[in-house]
Predict the 3D structure of the following.
Amino acid sequence: LSPPHTLPQRMDQLDAVRFGAGDALLVSNSRVTGRNWDGQLRLFRDAAQASRRGKGFCEQNLPNSAADVQFLAERRIAVASDDGSISIWAWRGDDSLENVWSQCPHDDVVSSLAVSVVRRQFLSASHDRSVKLWTWGDDGAQLAAQYRGHSRPVTAVALDSTSSRFATGGEDSNVLVWSASDAAATPLAVKCASVPTSVAWSPAEEHVFVTGHMDGSVVFRDARSLSQALRSSHLHTASVNELAFCPHRPGVLASAGNDGQVLVIGADGSRIYQGAHTYFARTIAWASQHPTLVSAGWDGQILCHSIAL
């Protein structure tokens, strides 16, 4: 499936989907409003409601498009924006969203967020070539550390299962593995054949993480020995936008790409499932309570995929 060469008439472009408590679904989108490029957050009771393209039970307009969003806690949401800002929103009991903290710490697009729920910390990766570590509380967030090692924009960031290390990918074609507790430590590095565009750390294997690349390839690596890939395959024919390990079955991985494809592979690399959008598949997320994968893309669609595991 090849996406069309022009954008669809619908100007809402869905950029991130994330599941929260009770499998409520958070959706962020960017959109053109007159001459302005802004964004919106929408909360749905569940993925089925979102897939019907109905109105969310809570909607919040944003002054800029949101490149990434993450739940920090059951009722706290972090938003990364394309103007370099980060904001934290509280999901109130009356089903409204309130901005409780906002700052513009980056000089360019904030491309990716990664959250440590246990440590109450999160990472922000930016096109300004930096990664920042934040400690958050009820009244906002404070900068804890800053990491610089990429020579070009940082495209993605992911924490390991212990929150002791994190991996980043950059437009310099490097993948770096950092210590989350020592910003002065030199990161481990590997040069890739294609620009890494997405990163995900295995929740079941402490040292294993996977990177998606601009050429459509997906590469599994061991953080202790980056130079030799564990395995790789060209799952997509265009850039891999997001990777997500399944919480219900160790080793099962989902991917979404600019070829419109949504794929699920098993721990042995076999293909379990294939779905498709009519334009870029931008984002994916697994439901926590059942093996449902949700995807969204620039075709304006939110799709629910029931995966037989």
Summary: The chain is about 0% helix and 55% strand. The two ends are 25 Å apart (CA to CA). The mean pLDDT is 93. The CA atoms of residues 12 and 221 lie 35 Å apart.
